[in-house]
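From the shared-data thread, chain only:
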Amino acid sequence: DIMKMSMILPEVQKEHEPYHGYGAGDIIGDHDHALAYVMEHFPDMLPSFRELESSEKLSVKFTQCNLCFNHGWFVQAEAPPGAIFTKFRQT
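Structure, as tokens:
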């Protein structure tokens, strides 16, 4: 996932603080929160996301930012089902 590259992690802008516990000027270190921040506030930086219809954007944001689903864990059986689906059950 693209937000695991530290060189492109977003910095919280003053008008967006607080954001998931980050203040203005903070670099968002959590890759899920970083992706959500860019999708919410700077969608033009993600061309494939930018071109989606509004309903499709909502679906992508939900699956990528709200579920905290780790597809790698699921496919590679790296975690028990309880850990993989915890946030999914809460939603």
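The helical segments are 31-41, 47-50, 54-66, 71-76, 81-84, 86-90.
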